[in-house]
Amino acid sequence: MKRSHTAVLKSMLTLAFIISLSSGLVFAGQEKGETQSKAKLPGARPVIHAINYESIQQALDAIPAEGGVVMLPPGNFEINEPLVITKGDVLLMGAGSATHIHNKNEEGQDAIAIHPPADAKLPDGKPDPKPRIWRVQLQNFRVTGNEKSGRGINAKWVQEIYIHGVTCSYHGSDGIFLDFCFEDPRVSDCLITYNKATGLNTVGCHDIVVSANHFEENLDALRCTDGYNLCMSGNNLDDHLRDGVIIENTYGSIVCANMIEECKGRAITLDKECYGITLSANVIAHNGSGIILDDAHGCAVSANTFTLLSKDALKIGPKSGRITVTGNNFSNSYIGNGQVKRRTNDLKAAGLTLDKTRGVTVSGNLFASVRPKAVTVIEPTTHVLFGDNLLIDVESDHDKLTESIIKNTLIAPAEPVKPVAKPSEK
């Protein structure tokens, strides 16, 4: 009986193998391990499986000029020099975190470099003074470095770059650097952690989408410089060694629905002639400071929750003006019934600082148990509309505003505060 079952099983496997061959499935081949059945679909190009090459770079070099797909298998792959992509319409795809590329280089070299070829030419054969490559995607793998390595992913002049589902950690510089990848760069669903410089650093980009990423314990989480139309939403930022979001010389952008916690420095800062930016519906908790507008105009700060900031939950500086501040909550860890969630030595909570600014609307906000004051006014601050705000258990300088309108401001006392018996871990 056992022999009969074995024979039947062997026959079934043989039949399945023959059917698979006849149906055009791909098997490990001979030349560099890669043989494909004849494609039946007009225009189709074979997928390049890196497992059949001596190195990942050899697989990348095998991509034809018109682009292609390189599939990375599970495994740990150590490199000593950058993996280089110089062609467009490329997808480099792994098997999730089971595909791990580790950069062992200790001379500041990057793990992955993406850029146009050095000898790029125009259609007439002349050197291209502004070379570009288009549509490179990195997806579903892990890339790590060390304290002496360079960036994790360094992309220059790559249009419509798309980085999705990539873990980028422990690099000696930026995790991801997008250098004038100015046409529609997208970074989503990535884990960007423990990099010595900025997690995601963008320079000269526009129409940028940064969505649903985790940033943790980089020096800074995100830096956007000389760009416009940044859309940053649904990200989680935690434990950064300096700042959360730094935006400079950028306009027409939105930072919304992000969780920004425990940055040692600023949660969000706008500087160097920013304008037309909305910061909305973010939770900004337990950072060194909150939103700092150093040089910003025509911006809205709305519906954010500021809690447990060491100082300056929101600061509008002398170079900033024409700012709308509305619908925000500035608070400590009060949980009702005269109790706070935090220990008595962790009751810090900061308010709004108006530092020699002008042209600001402050309306519909709540300031509760913040210190030292709900509103700190550094003179001269003028032309402020301060109305319809509720102040509970606070002191405030808003009555020092000059050439301003102050109306409908309710100041209320607090209930006696008692710490809870078992405070939270944080």
Automatic annotation (TrEMBL):
User: Is Transcription there in the keyword field?
Assistant: no
Q: What is this protein called?
A: Pectate lyase superfamily protein
One of the entry's Gene Ontology molecular-function terms is: lyase activity
Source domain of life: Bacteria
**Signal peptide (from-to):** 1-28
Question: What are the TM regions of this chain, as residue ranges?
Answer: none
Query: Per the record's keyword annotation, is tRNA processing included, yes or no?
Result: no
Q: Which UniProt keywords apply?
A: Lyase, Signal
InterPro entries associated with the record: Beta_helix, PbH1, Pectin_lyas_fold, Pectin_lyase_fold/virulence
Tell me which residues make up the Right handed beta helix domain. Answer: 152-306
